[in-house]
Amino acid sequence: MENASRALIMAGSVLIALMIIGALMLMFGNLTSYQETDTQGTRSAQIAEFNQQFETYNRDDVRGSDLYSSLNKVIDYNRRQSWEGVGESGEEIRYEPMTITFTVEQIELSADRITNRLFKKDSYTVSKNVNTFENTIKQTIDDLEDAYGQSSLTNLTTGMTAIFTGSSSDDVRVSNFNAASTKVKINSVDDLTNKSKSPSKKTTIQEDVYTYYEYIQFKRAHFDCENIEYDGETGRVISMEFDFNGKFN
Question: What's the confidence (pLDDT) of residue 40?
């Protein structure tokens, strides 16, 4: 009788132990599943947040100033080689670099409707391996703003006619220039066509202002988003295309 009781107790203990082990395994499985779901949810949220900053431009009538901002974002993103950190297994997490292409009608941006100083191509691309925008446009604008000052250049482009092509006397043109420009001053009207104030440029002051005018026009221009593509694996935006629609603010 005593042995039978011990056997029942042992069997009961084993059964309880098995039930506890089963419960722990079930809890562990649920916890793992929860963690995987939580991780997937976090990744989905990160993808949605990333895409949102570019999907806002997936529309018609995107202003050039907004497009300019998106181009700078892509340049920064690609320069970091799309690196997002280290995964759970220690692997580097990298994503497909982005590409943005936009087309313009050059003559629509020109200051004199004859020659283009800044936008000399119809199509520009920003990608990992090609960056015609930064190399040929952004650097030029940065140099000019360093030399003249952003606000002065804006004032000079507004008053181009009175300064460069108006019928006013030379003294008035000089006065108009100096009133519009705070960082750079001139002594005679010859200064407008003889030398640039940007050390890196072999151009004239007039050419510099006409160049900046194209940048102002670009920021005022409107573009339609013609195409947007997503990475098939990650779901991230990897490509966008814009076309100038002929409108200005």
Answer: 66
**Is the same domain home to 131 and 221?**
yes
Query: Where a domain ends, among 24, 55, 86?
Result: 55
Which residues, 6+ apart, have CB-to-CB distance to 246 below 8 Å? 105, 108, 222
Mean pLDDT computed over every residue of the chain: 84
Q: Which domain holds residue 24?
A: 1-55
Based on the fold, state whether residues 3 and 110 are members of the same structural domain: no
Residues 4 and 108 in one domain: no
Q: What is the pLDDT of residue 196?
A: 76
Whether 98 and 185 map to the same domain: the answer is yes
Within 10 Å of residue 121's Cβ, how many Cβ atoms? 13
Q: Do the Cβ atoms of 66 and 222 come closer than 8 Å?
A: no
Band of the pLDDT at 223, cuts 50, 70, 90?
very high
User: Under the phi-then-psi rule, with left for phi > 0, alpha for psi from -120 to 50, and beta for the rest, what region is 81?
Assistant: left
In tens, the pLDDT along 119-150 reads 999 999 998 878 888 878 988 999 999 999 99
Q: Is the pLDDT of residue 39 over 60?
A: no
